[in-house]
Amino acid sequence: MSDDKLIPPSPDAETYARTAVATANAVEIFDREDPFALFADWLTEAKKKEPNDANAVALATADASGLPDVRMVLLKDVDVDGFVFYTNLESGKGGQLAENPQAALCFHWKSLRRQVRVRGAVEPVSAEEADAYFASRARDSRIGAWASKQSRPLESRFALEKSVAREAARFGLGEVPRPPHWSGFRIRPLSLEFWRDRPFRLHDRMFFDRPDLGSTWTVSRLYP
User: Fold this and answer.
1) Has 173 been labeled as part of a binding site?
2) Pyridoxamine 5'-phosphate oxidase N-terminal domain spans which residues (predicted)?
3) Which residue is catalytic, options 139, 152, 201, 221?
């Protein structure tokens, strides 16, 4: 049995009652037909409520054998074509996506008691998109993209700092271009699920899915 002091207890009736009051004025989500418009609304609310990184999202990938992996990344763009993030292509996730170009996302906004899950195929962003986003990053972040051999063994923190200093000296005051091993991916969803907390675990779940990217969305409500 887990330690009661470590794992929070299940909510009691009083706690659920407070949750009901907090969510009483939430906008009804089940009259929507466009999942991207609904996601934009929820992300806009999250940016106002979350203490930091409202665009943080858990990214799940799998290697060629099907073994899953998950980590947090930052969403950098979203539109009707999909959800975009950037990374070192030689990182763990970069290698897994090269082997198995499918992924899932999970946004969890604790302040709103909401969650969005996304599943779909993955494709690279264009070089122009990657160049434009890379140019918008802070200069030190751009240098860091050259200095870090992401996901590979690092003998010491000093070795990383030495690599950063070497790359900073190499570029001097000049422009820092995008490394060839650094770019972005777009997850093109085949399904999205919008989840909203409700008292007594009787949550709201709205599910959008389509058989392929050219099809229209089917919308359904799911049991909690």
Assistant:
1) no
2) 43-166
3) 201
Nearest to 185 by CA among 108, 74, 71, 64: 74
Counting other chains too, the contacts that 141-144 makes at CB distance below 8 Å and 24 or more residues apart are 142/176, 142/178, 143/167, 143/168, 143/171, 143/176
Q: Tell me which residue range forms the domain holding 88.
A: 13-121+184-221
Asked whether residue 27 is marked as a ligand-binding residue, the answer is: no
- pLDDT tens track, the chain, 224 positions: 555 677 767 776 676 666 555 555 554 565 678 999 999 999 999 999 999 999 999 999 999 999 999 999 999 999 999 999 999 999 999 999 999 999 999 999 999 999 999 999 999 999 999 999 999 999 999 999 999 999 999 999 999 999 999 999 999 999 999 999 999 999 999 999 999 999 888 999 999 999 999 999 999 999 99
Q: Is 201 annotated as catalytic?
A: yes
Specify if 89 maps to a domain: yes
Residue 129 lies in a domain: no
CATH number at residue 109: 2.30.110.10
